[in-house]
Each structure stands twice: as structure tokens, then as C-alpha cells.
Amino acid sequence: MPSRHPDPGTGPVAVLVVTWNSARVLPAFLASLPEGTAGLDWRLVVADNDSADGTAELVRSLAPDATVVQTGRNAGYAAGVNAALAAAAGWEGGFRAALVCNPDVRMRTGCAARLVDALDAPLSGGRRVGISVPLLYEEDGTLHHSLRRESRVTRALGEAVIGNRRAGRYALLSELVTDPAAYRRATVADWATGALMALSRPCLDACGPWDESFFLYSEETEYCLRARDHGFATRLEPAASAVHLGGESQVSPRLWTLLTLNRVRLYGRRHGPAATAAFRTAVLLREASRAALGRPASLAAARALATPSVLRSVPGP
Q1: In whole angstroms, how far apart are CA 309 and each of 74, 274, 306, 312?
Q2: pLDDT tens digits for 152-176?
Q3: Can you count the helices (H) and strands (E) in the chain?
Q4: What residues does 299 pair with on adjacent strands?
């Protein structure tokens, strides 16, 4: 857990990257940092989860001023974020905000400074912006719908019956926010895709470490919801943008199953047994309907959801 600093407005911004066998995408990420962080005082921390492809050595070669933390094992994304935060907390003078990045993100000019500037803005009800996120684009320039609503049974059912893209137009029927207007303004969401997010120091201090029980997927969801519980909102900053090269979870049955199971696990953390059983059934219906359309990843997820004991011991990749 990062130590408290008396003045969260001082110190550099900690740019945190978690890597695992990331040598293929990391050079372009590092090359994009000068433009992406233009106008910002920042320092880079890379937490490497025991890569076998020379990722740590590559960072030392291409970014010799970076702090490299080697966790010594494939510890998961949240554990990597925590290791990087702990390293930044040891800097003389501390740090004033953190920028958590996937190594397959390419920030556009000034993106980081705009995200950091958006933090701590006051909102209604005494809340403040604790997490700011940019517009995310696919490699082909398509806007990625990165804003999300909190999981509900009605939303899982809506996605099962009419699909998340169409259901996303209605707040009652989908977690996914697809309204184009939401991406043209500073929109508060329950949570957002965690490929790139800025976190204020007050939010970090209030929330503490990321939840390492989520090896991969749902860790950013849990953190955004926990931040909301502490009065810190997640808000889109439309003036900031980046390209995200990800998408493996959409095609890998193993990763999609992990993502789906962790959604149900997180729901169970925040709701009672009866509600969780209803949510699990709704998600199972959603995955079964897609499996019937020939989607192998959904078939794997449905099979796992149909085995209740799997949720008690979700394996990591």
C-alpha cells in the first residue's frame, strides 16, 4: 500500500506498467511515452511478472532511467500494480498521482497530462474524480466502448436476450455503455476498461492496494467500485485518447472463461447468495446463447459456469 504523502499535489506522476512476456509490444509503448506524457513531470515503473522473453532486460536497455521491479513469479495484474505502487512510494518526495498502463497502449499526444489534470475535480454529492480514463481506440480507428455500468441481474439478462451492443443503449439492460453522447463529454461511469487510467493520490490512499485475489480481469472493476464506495468517481476525459492493441480475451476460451467467472465472483462479493445465484444463471444464459451461435469461448465459459465448484477456485492463466 502506498504510504501517505502530506501534499498530494507535489512530486512526479508515477507511470506504472505491468508486464508479462511483453517484449513484442513494449518497445513501441516506450517510444510513445514522450509524446503521450508531454507537459507532465513523470517517472516510469515497470513491474515484471517473471517474463521469459527478456522483457526486464529490454526495459533496462531502452529506458535506463525506469525503475524495474521483478516480482519473481507470474503474480497477476493486481499484484504487479501493487508492486509498482510500492516502488513509487519509496521515491523521495513521493508521487502525486499514478497512471496505470497496459504495455499494449499507445497514448496520443498529451493524453497523460489531460488525464492527470482531470483528477480531483469536484462532483455532486461531495464526490471527487478519483479515476480518469481516456477515449480508447482500436488499431483500425474504431472507438472502443470502454465505459461500464455495475453488474445487475437485469443487465445480464438484457445482454443474453438482445445482445450487449443493442442492450447498451439502455441503462437497465446492459453493463456496456454504447450511447455515442457518453463518449463526447466528461461522463461518470461505475467503472471503465483498465487498459489506461489515472488515479489520484487521495483515491489511492483511501482505497489501498488492488485486490490480488483477481489474478486477471475484474481487478479494475473491483477497484473502481471500491473507489466509488469511498466517494471517488471514475470519469471519462474525452480530450485524452489512446490506442489499445488488446482483445485476446475476446478470442481465447481460457481467458474469456476467466473473465466471465471473475465477473460472477465479484458480484458475489457485493451481493447475497440468492442474488448471486440469479446473476450467475443470467450470465450462464448469456454465454449459452452465444455458444449456440458457434462461439467457442462462450461454450467454455458456459461449461465452467455450469459447475458451481469452479467459482470457489478460479485458476489463473
Answers
A1: 24, 16, 9, 5
A2: 999 999 988 888 778 888 888 999 9
A3: 11, 12
A4: none
Q: CA-to-CA distance for 317 and 308, rounded, in angstroms?
A: 19
Angle at 54 between CA 53 and CA 60, to 5 degrees: 155
Q: Which amino acid is at 185?
A: R
- Write down the pTM of the prediction: 0.92
Distance CA(50)–CA(34), nearest Å, equals 27
C-alpha distance from residue 161 to each of 83, 166, 179, 263 (Å):
41, 10, 19, 18
Backbone angles phi, psi at 67, to 5 degrees: -90, 125
pLDDT in tens, 253-282: 999 999 999 999 999 999 999 999 999 999
Residue 44 dihedral angles phi and psi, to the nearest 5°: -100, 135
Q: Which three cell numbers, joined as nine digits, stand for 266? A: 465479484
Give the type of residue at 3.
S
For residue 275, the surrounding DSSP H or E stretch is: helix 273-292
Q: Where are the beta strands (DSSP E) in 152-261?
A: 188-189, 191-192, 196-200, 232-244
Reduced to 3 states (helix: H, G, I; strand: E, B; else coil), residue 43 is strand
- Give the N- to C-terminal CA distance of the chain in Å, as an integer: 25
The rounded distance, in Å, linking the Cα atoms of 37 and 107 is 8
Q: Which amino acid is at 140?
A: D
Which residues are 43's β-sheet partners? 14
Give the cell for residue 209. Answer: 492496494
Q: Which residues contact 86 (CB under 8 A, 6 or more apart)?
A: 1, 2, 69
